[in-house]
Each structure stands twice: as structure tokens, then as C-alpha cells.
């Protein structure tokens, strides 16, 4: 397909292809970049979730360990007695020293900052501290609450109002028995410095990272309070706060009920990828986050490579489109040159063919005036070329054919060509039939009718002779006493004469275009069709050739059967090969032959000359004929045998066996059985009862030998 283009300009469809390819390449590069980005985000979220799980479990375990320490003290009845004695008699140094020793061991081995003993008024009585210790209002409130609730209390992280340090305090109330009741005698405060273990645990990051960070926070009023020191901002523990309504802050998002992984903006206003999880059995939440710049740094580096590759592909596409354009331009000019050469050659060839063609060629304009004619036209019509060029094509028609010229030319226009027959006349008035092939063509922008006209006088004469011959043949076929059937290559009946109608009881309309197998027994239809195909394929079915005669059993429309003798001959109709089948009814001849065979087979001299036993019985199992050997072996006379049944000659235990054999004979045509023939004196003679042979399908009797 050649696309016309303006000289020097790239055709629009190539520009469209270039833009589509460029857009496809850019989209492909972008999708590749986004896919890589999604994969990195997915992997990093999984890493952050694993880190968050690790930190949450560590913090939860640390809290459980602290509570377990406090619960051990709560359950220690021995220390309660010492504390009770000390508080009752504080001047007894022995109890004081024991208690101090025990408090120091708790501080040393459990890594508490301070361990303090208070009385029921929350007043300090003993303390193991790293300096001067003063109880603030928060500590006293916790001690009183624990004694009132009679359970261990763990405080949240808080900023001391006196010492101005961040602490977490566990309060263990102490109770002593007084009669049937237990009464509080004081409490032990275990103070934890979060900078010793908790904050380092939170701030540590298990993998190398420039921005990775875990943050502990809690909900306080309508604000998010950060509980630990931050990596990127100092002096923030219990001081840095944000509104819970901050839309993209990870901690604010979590407090609004959304946990898990998401993209967010941290306390610095930097885009991060964050995972938020709650700390079990505490009011705390933990955020594990990392800057998006660090996460996507590898893909940002590859973005330059992807951009370069995409740009290179677009450049190569542009070069390829340019080459295609140049190639099309070159091919266009080459094809144009070749077309011009072909047109010249065709014009020369057309002129030659027109001049020396065997058919008449006339070119006619829209007004039916002849504008071109070849030498055959001059010879055929008897006019000179100049005379023809002054005439209308309608003048060359016979007078009775001139009225249809306009309608025929309209059909030429509508169907882009038309072949039709008409009558033309010569200059001397001679009429002759012609076949016209007319087509509308364009020559140098002008529409003309080109007419190729063939004199078909000889063909018309041959058609008339053929029609006459066919009529004579049809008359002969219809007058034939034998059935004549013509079958095509597909085995379909195409001719069925009157004798065939009378023989098969089908009318011609019922038989035509039906398979020939409807006239045959089902078991022989395939065999006959193969014989017809072989007759045609071997070249035997040439027109006029006659095959040998054969006999076959046929069936009529009513299902009755008859024997026929058939002869096949080859024939042809246009391009189709045919088989002409002649069928002669030989039913009567077959009956006569059967009677002659019967007379020959069952003559007295024939059956008495048989070496073995022979007898004949009908379908009612009555004896019809037998030979002398049968009378001799059985000992019965002819008068006795005529009134007996064939089964009377066998013992009771063999009658059923022989009876089944006789049934098989009438059903299948033959049978064999071994039995003992019983004589009149009741002697048994071994006998192989093997004849039971079917003699004739037209007679209902059987023989044995």
C-alpha cells in the first residue's frame, strides 16, 4: 500500500506513529519506575514492621520484668515483718540495716535508680539513692493510691516536679496482719531511670541507616506527647507535643485509630515511611520510621539511567521513522516510474491486441458514438474505419435489439461490467448473433464504454444441434422398456425414466436429486457406491464406454425386493461425469432357474444315488422326500415315515439339541449337530447330523445329509 505524500514533508501518519511510540516508551519507563518504587516500598514496610515488632516485644518484656520484680516484693512476707518492726521501733538499728541491705541489693541487681521505703502517710523513712532524695507530690500520690488499691502500680513516664528528671516508678504496697484483717504499713517505691535502658533500647536501630528511628509516644488530651529523646531533635522527651489533628503525622494517625504501615510526614516535616504499633498493657505506641529519601535513593539513581534509556529509545525511534519515510519516498518515486513504464507498455500492448484481436473491439462514448474500432470490426461489419467512427453503436444492432441499448448500458454502470447477447447486422443487412462484454473504463479522465464483441453464430448452431440431439435421446430413454437411471459423481439421481418409475414405484420427482442408495438393499448400498466410484476413477466411465453386466437385488418404494441385471455406461454433462445405469427385471427368469434347479436336485435318481442319509422337510417339520438309505438305516417303511416327525428318530435326551439345530437352520440357513439316530428296533446308530442346508429362499423346506 503506497501513501501519497507532499514532496519533502513527513506524512502525518508517520508523525502519529512516532508520537504514539514515544508516548508508549515514556509510559513504559514510568511504569517500570513506579513498579520498582512499589517493590522497594513493600520491602521496606516489611522491614519496618519487623523492627517495630522487635521493639514492641522488647519494651513489653521489659515492663513485664519490672512488674514481676514488684510482685515478688509484694508477695515477700519476710520483708514485711522487718519493715513492720522497723517502722514500730525505728531506733533498732538491726532492722534498719537489714532493710537497707535488702534495698541496696534491689537497686544494684535490678538496675533501679532509687529504692525508697515510705510509711502509711507517704513520708520517706529509708532510701537507697544516688543522691539526696526528696519525695515530690507525684510520688506521694502514687504511694497512697497503691496502698488504697492494695496492688502494685506502675506509673507512666513523668517529669519530676522537684528534681526535674524523667522517671518511671513502680509502687509496691506493704500489708501486715492485724487480727483478721490486713492493714497497710507502708510502701516501697522502685524508681527507674529511662536513660539507663528504655531510651537506649528505643533509640537503637538494628540495621545501618542514616534516618531510621523508633519513637515512643502516648495520647495526652488532644495532643500527641513524645516520650523519648529523638534522633533528629534533642531535649524532646516529655516536651515535644503535636495536635492529634495533624493529618500526616504518624503518631497522630495512629491515635485516630489507623495503625500499620503508611506514608506520612514526621515531626520534622520530612516525608517518611512509618509503621505504628501499640505497646501491649500500656498507654504507649511505638513508631518505626525511615525517610523516604533514604528508601528511594537507589531508585532515584536508576531514574537517571531509565530516563537516558527512554530518551535513547525515542531518538532511535525517530531515526527509524526517518529512514522509513526516506524509504517510502524512494519507493514512491520508483513505483511511479515503474507505473509510467508499465502504462506505456500496456498502451502499446493494448493497441497491438486491439488491432489484431480475433474479437470485435469497439470503444463508445457516453452518447453511444463509436470512437474506436479494431480491424476485426472493419472486416466483420463491412464498413470502413472512417464509416464506423461516424456511427452510433446502436446502428450496428438489429432493429428489434435497439430499444434495450439504454437499459443494458445502465446495467453496465451499476454492475461495473456486463456480459449479454444480442443481434448485430452487417453493412449488407446480414444478421448475426453476438456476445458482448461491456465495461466502463476511464481514459485520460474521460469515461468510455469498451465493448468486446464475439460472433457466436457457430456456437448457436452447435447449441441448436445439441438440443435436438438431447431431445432425440430423451425420447429414446423414455420409450425404453428397461429402467434407465443416470447418477452423477456424488451418487445422486439426475435422470429417472418412465420404466424406472414403474419398476421402483417412485415418481420422477421423488427420485431426482436423491441418493441412488434408496433403490438398493442397505447391506449392498456401500458396495454399489464404491463400484460406481471405481468405474469413474479408473477412467472406465468415459463417455460411451459400457461396463460388464452384473446382477443385483433391488428394493422398491414399498419395501419389496426384486432381482435385476444392470449395465453401467459412462457419460458426461458439461463438466460433470455421469454413470448411465440400465436395469432389466430378471425376477421371472430367476424363478424359472430355481424351478429347474429344484427338479434337478430332487429327482429320485439323484437323492437315491447319495451315499449317506438324505431327507427333506418343510417349516412345519413334516417329511416331504427321503432316500432309500434313510429307510434302510431306520427300519421304517415309506408309509410309516410319511406320518412321522423328524424328532421321532432321536432319543428324548437328544431331541432338545436337535430341535435347536433345526431352529437355527430356519433362522440362519444352516447348522451342525452330533447325535445318535434311533432305529425302529430302538437301536442307536451314531450319526453326525451336519447337513441342515438351506436350499432355496423361495421355498420353505430344509434338507439334511
Detailed description of the structure:
Helices cover 43% and strands 26% of the residues. By secondary structure, it is of the alpha+beta class. The chain folds into 5 domains: 76-192, PAS domain (Beta-Lactamase); 205-296, PAS domain (Beta-Lactamase); 357-455, PAS domain (Beta-Lactamase, 2-Layer Sandwich); 475-585, Beta-Lactamase; 602-704, 2-Layer Sandwich (Beta-Lactamase). Strand 21 and strand 22 form a beta hairpin. Helix 2 (77-88) packs across helix 3. The longest helix is centred in the N-terminal third of the chain and has 64 residues, at 12-75. Mean pLDDT is 81; it is low at 1-7, 540-544 and 686-705.
Q: How is this fold's topology laid out?
A:
Layout: H1 12-75, H2 77-88, H3 93-110, E1 114-118, E2 124-128, H4 137-149, E3 153-154, E4 158-159, E5 166-178, E6 181-192, H5 198-203, E7 213-220, E8 223-226, E9 241-243, H6 250-255, E10 260-265, E11 271-278, E12 284-291, H7 292-295, H8 297-356, E13 360-364, E14 370-373, H9 375-381, H10 385-389, H11 405-415, E15 418-425, E16 431-443, E17 446-455, H12 457-479, E18 483-488, E19 493-496, H13 498-504, H14 508-511, H15 522-537, E20 550-555, E21 561-573, E22 576-585, H16 587-601, H17 604-608, E23 615-618, E24 623-626, H18 628-634, H19 638-642, H20 652-668, E25 673-678, E26 684-689, E27 693-694, E28 701-704
Antiparallel strand pairs: 1-2, 1-6, 3-5, 4-5, 5-6, 7-8, 7-12, 8-9, 10-11, 11-12, 13-14, 13-17, 15-16, 16-17, 18-19, 18-22, 20-21, 21-22, 23-24, 23-28, 25-26, 27-28
Helix pairs in contact: 1-8, 2-3
